[in-house]
Amino acid sequence: MGAFLDKPKMEKYNSHGEGNHLRYGLSSMQGWRVEMEDAHTAVIGLPHGLDPWSFFAVYDGHAGSQVAKYCCEHLLEHITSNSDFQSAIQESTSVESVKNGIRTGFLQIDEHMRTISEKKHGVDRSGSTAVGVMISPSHIYFINCGDSRGLLSRGGAVHFFTQDHKPSNPLEKERIQNAGGSVMIQRVNGSLAVSRALGDFDYKCVHGKGPTEQLVSPEPEVYAIERSEGEDEFIILACDGIWDVMANEELCDFVRSRLEVTEDLEKVSNEIVDTCLYKGSRDNMSVVLICFPGAPKVSPEAVKREAELDKYLEARVEEIIKKQGDEGIPDLVHVMRTLASESIPNLPPGGELASKRSVIEAVYNKLNPYRSDDTEDPHFSFKHSDSWAG
């Protein structure tokens, strides 16, 4: 299957933590890809005297995992220790100065990794996108380089989201062409699907052009948003394996509905990743969910509705299997397709039936003692034709 496995690797890496009036949970899964190339960072309380500050990021590697891994271990230090950032903090912490310091950190780590790569005679050709947030007591700094995405939910709606850096974007395309490149099949020189990234040094060797004028730029876009106590709910940072199958509003609605039934942010993050796999994502998947004090709280009514929905789905699966009678037990694909054709109330918004596949699968397996691993088409992914706008 080329760059894909015969069946997805669904084991997950999880972590969670809290501090600075924030709670976070994260989940990452290899999925269908042959290699896991994602990485992430979650730090509450930053070095250099920035205890009230926090930093979270997701790195989506390509052509290898080296750059993503290096960034997850060293990017924060490059940001917080560079002289631009340090002077911003020591003065009156002006927003523009902090943004400049973050940009400087990106350019510095990219140049540093290039030096390391050249010492190894250019062995490493990998690259990585980066999406992150630096949260100060007064501001949320969204940081984006590539096509991973971050968003803020405030007051029950999507308040802000980062813009993906795709080669076909007019400003990105202009830079690529000015550097002597072209955009073909929506890729840089017909090859790379992102126009900004760390690493990817094969695309950063145009003589006479600065680091931010190359075919691929390591410069992040940095957005500063004033915090709104009570209104700010949560931040989602995720690689494009998530956004490929869920739109901003869908994912926000889904997360909101999950926070009404559980406080466990690892569990919510796992549900995001599983739901996106069942919606058809073929990529590595990583998500960090950061909750403010104003995040939705567990509601007894929502918990009851969820339990009733699970019970209803279990009963329906049993009915579908029994209906086959002498024809034998239908495969799971048949069960999912039958349920997909029905109007089922109270399915989680954004996740829909795909988010309940684990419940359906559990009761199916219990009722089918003769099942074998090959009863399900590994290429089947459940999704309504009109249930998502990828």
TrEMBL record:
Q: Where in the cell is it found?
A: Cytoplasm, Cytosol; Membrane; Nucleus
| Record-given protein name | Protein phosphatase 1A
| Bilayer disposition of the protein | Lipid-anchor
User: Residue ranges of region Disordered?
Assistant: 370-390
Cofactor(s) needed, names only, are:
Mg(2+); Mn(2+)
Signal sequence, start to end: none
Q: EC number(s)?
A: 3.1.3.16
Give the quaternary structure.
Answer: Monomer. Interacts with SMAD2; the interaction dephosphorylates SMAD2 in its C-terminal SXS motif resulting in disruption of the SMAD2/SMAD4 complex, SMAD2 nuclear export and termination of the TGF-beta-mediated signaling. Interacts with SMAD2; the interaction dephosphorylates SMAD2 in its C-terminal SXS motif resulting in disruption of the SMAD2/SMAD4 complex, SMAD2 nuclear export and termination of the TGF-beta-mediated signaling. Interacts with the phosphorylated form of IKBKB/IKKB.
From which organism does this entry originate?
Xiphophorus maculatus
> What lineage is on file?
Eukaryota, Metazoa, Chordata, Craniata, Vertebrata
Ranges of compositional bias, category Basic and acidic residues: 371-390
Q: Which UniProt keywords apply?
A: Cytoplasm, Hydrolase, Lipoprotein, Magnesium, Manganese, Membrane, Metal-binding, Myristate, Nucleus, Phosphoprotein, Protein phosphatase
Q: Where is the PPM-type phosphatase domain?
A: 23-292
Record CDD domains: PP2Cc
Keyword field contains Membrane: yes
One GO location term (cellular component): cytosol
Function text: Enzyme with a broad specificity. Negatively regulates TGF-beta signaling through dephosphorylating SMAD2 and SMAD3, resulting in their dissociation from SMAD4, nuclear export of the SMADs and termination of the TGF-beta-mediated signaling. Dephosphorylates PRKAA1 and PRKAA2. Plays an important role in the termination of TNF-alpha-mediated NF-kappa-B activation through dephosphorylating and inactivating IKBKB/IKKB.
Mention one GO molecular function: protein serine/threonine phosphatase activity
Q: Cite the SUPFAM superfamilies for this sequence.
A: PP2C-like, Protein serine/threonine phosphatase 2C, C-terminal domain
Q: Which family does it belong to?
A: Belongs to the PP2C family.
